[in-house]
Structures are given as structure tokens and as C-alpha cells.
Design brief:
Radius of gyration: 24 Å
Distance between the termini: 63 Å
Structural class: alpha/beta
CATH topology: Rossmann fold
Number of domains: 1
């Protein structure tokens, strides 16, 4: 049997391939079917992407908690991300008077992306703790945040460029984030930023997978969160 003369990662030139007794025109493999030089790197890149927010994977699976009539589909990475959160929600299902979701966001996003996500969730019948409506004028913001965190099934963190700035400055968003990270009831929602940028500010939060508006609409994300918290 002819032996390939290529180095470890394959022939780097067409002439080198043609001259090889195993890979040339008389060999058993064609150039198009043999590509070890590029495969390791492309596979590694795809793995990194899919481990974050489901990028590069087909949304063809229903979640265990989805109803039979559901039209919402998930990537395998999204299922892995949301399953532990769902299990915690189910364990706490008997606790009365819980809001479905605590929405952690930057103050600067309260009339923009945060309100859009809040409105999308409430349109689906999800009860949301949202500072814009749940903190009365003259109330202690920190005290109301504490109450909201305790009385919510799950926390979602809307990660935006404004949120990253707030966390760097150790503001209110940083306090909410610290409490949410102490519980396995947290889903990051990336909007106009990346997990790489998040890891530079909060490595612990950045190590978690989540959902991203770069891959699907805010409405689609709201539909997944709605299914997640329904008990």
C-alpha cells in the first residue's frame, strides 16, 4: 500500500499532493475528501460557538417542559443551558406568590431593550419583576430589589453595553448580579454585545451559557423564557 508523504496536517500545495503516491491522481483518496489540515481548527471554532448560546446548531428540538402543541424549538446547547434552571423552578413550584421572572438590567436600558423584553414577556402571560413599575416613588431601591429577588422563580440578566459599564462601576446591577449568581436560577440574555466582552467584566457570569438576540429575535427569546417558567 502506498504511504502518504504529507506532513501531519496534510499537503500544503496542489503540486505536493499530485506528487504523493497515496494522495495523487492514482491514490485511493481525492483531495476534496481529505482535508485534515483544516478540520481540527474549524471543529474547534464551531465547538466554542455552540457552547455559548447555541450558535451554529439547528433549532430542531423541543424541551422536556414544552407542551405538545408548542412551536418553540431549541438547539442542544440551549437545552443543556436551560435544563438546570428548569429543574430548580420545578423544585420551587409549591412556593406561593412568586413572580415568574426577575429582570436584571442596566438603568440606561429601562426605556429600551429592557422594556421591550418586559413587554414581550408580559404579552405571553409571564409575570415580571421590573424596577420601572415595581419600585414605588420614595421607596428604597435596594430593599425592593431584595424583595423582588426572593419572590421570583428565575432571574434573567439583560447583558448590554450599558450593563457592562454598570458592572464595571459596581452599581445596582452588580448587586443584583451577585445575588442571582449565588443561585442556579440565572439566564444571561445577550443584546448588542458578546460573551467575550462579558467575560472581561464578569468571568463568572461569562462562563455561563445563555440566549442571544444576535441569533434570534427578542420575541423568540421571550417565548422560550415563557415556556421555561410555566409550571
Amino acid at each position: 500500500m502506498a504511504r502518504c508523504t504529507a506532513p501531519r496536517y496534510g499537503h500544503r500545495t496542489a503540486s505536493g499532493r499530485d506528487a504523493c503516491p497515496a494522495c495523487g491522481s492514482s491514490g485511493s483518496r481525492s483531495y476534496n475528501s481529505y482535508s485534515p489540515y483544516s478540520t481540527p481548527y474549524s471543529s474547534y471554532g464551531n465547538s466554542l460557538s455552540s457552547n455559548r448560546s447555541g450558535g451554529g446548531q439547528a433549532r430542531s428540538n423541543r424541551a422536556r417542559w414544552s407542551k405538545a402543541s408548542s412551536s418553540v424549538f431549541y438547539t442542544p446547547a440551549e437545552i443543556r443551558t436551560l435544563t438546570p434552571v428548569r429543574e430548580n423552578i420545578e423544585e420551587r413550584a409549591s412556593i406561593p406568590d412568586l413572580r415568574d421572572i426577575f429582570l436584571c438590567h442596566a438603568w440606561d436600558d429601562r426605556q429600551g431593550a429592557a422594556k421591550e423584553l418586559h413587554d414581550s414577556l408580559e404579552a405571553l402571560g409571564v409575570s415580571v419583576w421590573f424596577s420601572e413599575k415595581d419600585v414605588a416613588l420614595g421607596s428604597s431601591l435596594l430593599r425592593e430589589i431584595d424583595k423582588g429577588l426572593v419572590k421570583s422563580r428565575v432571574g434573567i440578566v439583560l447583558v448590554t453595553p450599558s450593563f457592562l459599564k454598570r458592572v464595571k462601576g459596581e452599581g445596582i446591577a452588580d448587586k443584583e448580579l451577585s445575588v442571582l449568581l449565588a443561585r442556579d436560577l440565572l439566564v444571561p440574555i445577550m443584546h448588542n454585545t458578546t460573551f467575550e466582552e462579558l467575560r472581561e467584566v464578569s468571568p463568572l457570569l461569562g462562563s455561563r451559557s445563555g440566549l442571544s438576540t444576535s441569533e434570534e429575535s427578542m420575541t423568540a427569546i421571550a417565548a422560550k423564557l415563557s415556556e421555561l417558567v410555566e409550571v
